[in-house]
C-alpha cells in the first residue's frame, strides 16, 4: 500500500473532489488495512464535527443519485465506498435509506458499516461526511457495531506567566522569547542586556534587567540566580517568592527589588509594603529572619549574615519608562522593515508582493508591489483593514467565511516559494487557508494550516506528492502572536522545505514529482470556486495577514532568515 497515495485519495474524498475510479481504490485500501480505517475514522469525525458548525448543505437526493451510479457499476462486486454527504446536518429522508437498504444488502457480499459519533450511533445521518460502508474483500465478516461517541480530551496548559514586554534584549541562553510567549515551570530565562517584563497568572509582575539568569519554579516562585529584578505583587498574589542562593524573599503585597551577585550577596529593597526574608531552604513554616517595610533595604552574604543598607531606596522602573523604550524599539523596527521592503520589491524573482500598506483603509484593491501593472493586484472581498505587526502598519483581518483576497497568476513554474507574516487567532477549521487555488487540478498549489497547527503544502494531481505537514507550529498558547511562515517547493532538487520564524522546521522531504506548478485563480485566506457548485468546505483563515510573498524559484535558508529578521516586530 502506498501511504502517499492513500493520503492523496483521502484528501480528495474530504474535499469532495474524488472520481469513481479513485473512490474504488480508496475503498479497497480501507477494506484491507485496519490502521487506515482508524485514520479514516479520525479524519471524518473531525470533518463531521466542523460541518455541524459550518452548516453546509448537501441534500439526500445527491446521496441517492450517487448510490444509483455506484450500484449500477459495482453490482455483485466488493469494496464499495458509500459517500453520504449531508453538509447541512439535515437528516437524509428515511424513505430514501429504506429504499436502498435491501438493494445494497443484495448487491454486496458483506457490508461493514463503520459508524462513529453521537449522530450515527443513534441512527442519524449527520455532518459533512458519514462513515463509508466497506465491502469485505474476504466476504464473510460481520458488521462492526456502532462506536460510542468520543468525548475529546480537554486541552491542558502548564504555563504560569506570559511575557508582557521585551525591550532591547540580547539573549544568552538557549531559550529566546518574544512578547506574548508563555513560560512554564523549569524554564530558564537568560539575557545579556535589556529588560523583560513577565506577568504571572496569579497577578504578580516581575521585571528582569540583564545581565541576568532567572528560573521559573512554579506559579508563585522564581529563582534569581543572577541579575536584578523588580516585583509588583497585588493582594491576590500575596506570597509570591523570589529565591536567591543567599535568601528567600516572600512578598506580602508590595513592590520590591532584588539584586543577586552569585557567590557574594543578595540585596533587597522595599519600595512599598512589606516583605519577609527566610533561609533559602526553609520550609513554609520556617522561622523568619527579617521583616522589611517601605523604604528599608538589606544585604545578605553567602554566610547568611545580614547588613542594613544605608543608601537611599529608589523606586522600581516605571511602566512609563518601559513603554517609552518599547515605543522607540517599535519605531526603529518599522523603519528597518520599510527600508528592506523598498529594496525587496525590485527582486526580479517576485511574482506577488503584497505588503498590505494601504493608503485607504476602505480600499478593495490590494496592490502588488512587485509589478507596475495592475493585473496581479488582489481583490479584497470582505475582511477588515486593521493594525499589522507595528501600530503604523496595515493588515487584513480574516474572520468570516466570506473574507478573502482573490488574484490570478498565469504561467507554470518549476519551483515556488511562499512566505507570509500572519497572526493566528484561531484554528477552528479542519483546514485554514493561507493560499488555495480555486480548483485542485494538476500542478495547483494548496498552502494551509490544519487544526493541529501544522503547516501543509501539496500539489494537485500529483499522486506521489502527499501533504507535506510540519510538526505543530501554533497551539492555543500562541494565538494572537505574529509569526512568519514559509514553504519552498524546490522542483530542481525535488524537495519541500518549511520554515517557522526564519528557521527550517524538520528535514527536507524528497519528492517524486517532475511536473510544473500552477496558481491561476486563487485566494489568500480562503477557498472559493467562482463557478457555483453548491456548498463547499469552509476553510477561511481566522487571523490577520500583513505581508505575503510569492517567488518564482526556491529561496535558500539565509534568504528566508533575512525576511524574518528584518520583519520581526519584537527585534
UniProtKB/TrEMBL annotation:
Signal peptide: none
All residue ranges annotated as the LamG-like jellyroll fold domain in the record: 414-558
Keyword terms: Disulfide bond, Membrane, Signal, Transmembrane, Transmembrane helix
TM ranges: 100-125
Matches recorded under SMART domains: LamGL
UniProt-listed SUPFAM superfamilies: Concanavalin A-like lectins/glucanases
GO molecular function: sigma factor antagonist activity
Protein name: FecR protein
Source organism of the structure: Rosistilla oblonga
Lineage, top ranks: Bacteria, Pseudomonadati, Planctomycetota, Planctomycetia, Pirellulales
Amino acid at each position: 500500500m502506498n501511504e502517499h497515495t492513500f493520503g492523496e485519495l483521502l484528501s480528495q474524498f474530504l474535499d469532495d473532489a474524488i472520481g469513481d475510479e479513485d473512490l474504488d481504490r480508496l475503498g479497497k485500501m480501507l477494506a484491507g488495512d485496519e490502521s487506515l480505517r482508524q485514520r479514516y475514522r479520525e479524519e471524518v469525525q473531525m470533518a463531521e464535527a466542523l460541518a455541524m458548525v459550518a452548516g453546509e448543505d448537501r441534500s439526500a437526493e445527491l446521496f441517492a443519485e450517487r448510490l444509483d451510479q455506484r450500484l449500477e457499476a459495482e453490482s455483485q462486486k466488493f469494496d464499495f465506498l458509500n459517500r453520504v454527504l449531508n453538509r447541512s446536518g439535515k437528516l437524509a429522508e428515511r424513505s430514501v435509506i429504506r429504499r436502498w437498504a435491501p438493494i445494497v444488502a443484495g448487491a454486496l457480499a458483506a457490508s461493514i458499516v463503520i459508524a462513529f459519533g453521537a449522530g450515527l450511533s443513534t441512527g442519524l445521518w449527520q455532518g459533512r461526511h458519514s462513515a463509508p460502508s466497506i465491502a469485505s474483500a474476504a466476504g464473510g465478516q460481520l458488521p462492526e457495531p456502532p462506536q460510542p461517541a468520543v468525548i475529546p480530551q480537554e486541552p491542558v496548559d502548564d504555563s504560569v506567566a506570559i511575557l508582557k514586554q521585551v525591550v532591547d534584549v540580547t539573549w544568552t541562553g538557549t531559550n529566546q522569547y518574544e512578547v506574548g510567549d508563555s513560560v512554564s515551570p523549569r524554564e530558564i530565562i537568560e539575557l545579556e542586556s535589556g529588560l523583560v517584563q513577565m506577568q504571572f497568572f496569579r497577578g504578580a509582575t516581575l521585571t528582569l534587567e540583564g545581565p541576568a539568569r532567572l528560573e521559573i519554579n512554579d506559579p508563585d516562585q522564581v529563582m534569581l540566580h543572577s541579575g536584578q529584578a523588580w516585583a509588583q505583587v497585588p493582594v491576590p498574589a500575596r506570597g509570591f517568592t523570589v529565591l536567591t542562593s543567599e535568601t528567600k524573599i516572600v512578598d506580602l503585597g508590595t513592590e520590591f527589588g532584588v539584586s543577586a551577585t552569585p557567590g557574594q550577596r543578595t540585596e533587597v529593597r522595599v519600595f512599598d509594603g512589606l516583605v519577609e526574608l527566610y533561609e533559602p531552604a526553609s520550609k513554609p513554616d520556617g522561622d523568619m529572619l527579617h521583616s522589611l517595610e517601605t523604604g528599608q533595604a538589606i544585604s545578605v552574604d553567602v554566610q547568611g549574615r545580614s547588613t542594613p543598607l544605608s543608601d537611599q531606596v529608589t523606586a522600581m522602573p516605571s511602566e512609563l519608562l518601559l513603554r517609552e523604550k518599547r515605543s522607540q524599539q517599535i519605531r526603529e523596527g518599522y523603519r528597518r522593515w520599510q527600508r528592506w521592503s523598498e529594496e525587496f520589491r525590485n527582486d526580479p524573482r517576485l511574482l506577488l508582493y503584497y505588503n498590505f500598506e494601504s493608503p485607504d483603509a476602505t480600499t478593495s484593491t490590494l496592490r502588488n508591489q512587485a509589478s507596475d501593472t495592475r493585473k496581479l493586484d488582489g481583490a479584497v472581498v470582505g475582511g477588515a483593514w486593521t493594525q499589522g505587526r507595528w501600530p503604523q502598519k496595515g493588515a487584513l483581518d480574516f474572520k468570516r467565511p466570506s473574507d478573502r483576497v482573490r488574484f490570478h497568476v498565469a504561467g507554470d513554474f518549476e519551483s515556488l516559494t511562499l512566505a507570509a507574516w500572519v497572526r493566528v487567532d484561531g484554528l477552528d477549521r479542519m483546514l485554514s487557508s493561507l493560499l488555495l487555488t480555486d480548483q485542485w487540478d494538476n500542478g495547483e498549489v494548496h498552502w494551509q494550516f490544519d487544526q493541529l497547527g501544522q503547516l501543509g503544502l501539496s500539489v494537485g494531481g500529483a499522486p506521489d506528492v502527499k501533504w507535506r505537514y510540519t510538526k505543530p507550529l501554533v497551539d492555543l498558547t500562541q494565538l494572537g502572536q505574529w509569526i512568519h511562515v514559509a514553504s519552498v517547493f524546490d522542483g530542481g532538487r525535488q524537495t519541500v522545505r518549511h520554515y517557522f520564524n526564519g528557521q527550517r522546521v524538520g528535514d527536507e522531504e524528497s519528492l517524486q514529482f517532475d511536473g510544473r506548478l500552477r496558481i491561476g485563480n486563487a485566494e489568500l485566506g480562503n477557498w472559493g470556486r467562482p463557478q457555483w457548485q453548491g456548498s463547499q468546505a469552509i476553510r477561511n483563515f481566522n487571523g490577520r495577514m500583513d505581508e505575503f510573498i510569492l517567488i518564482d524559484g526556491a529561496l535558500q535558508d539565509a534568504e528566508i532568515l533575512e525576511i524574518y529578521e528584518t520583519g520581526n516586530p519584537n527585534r
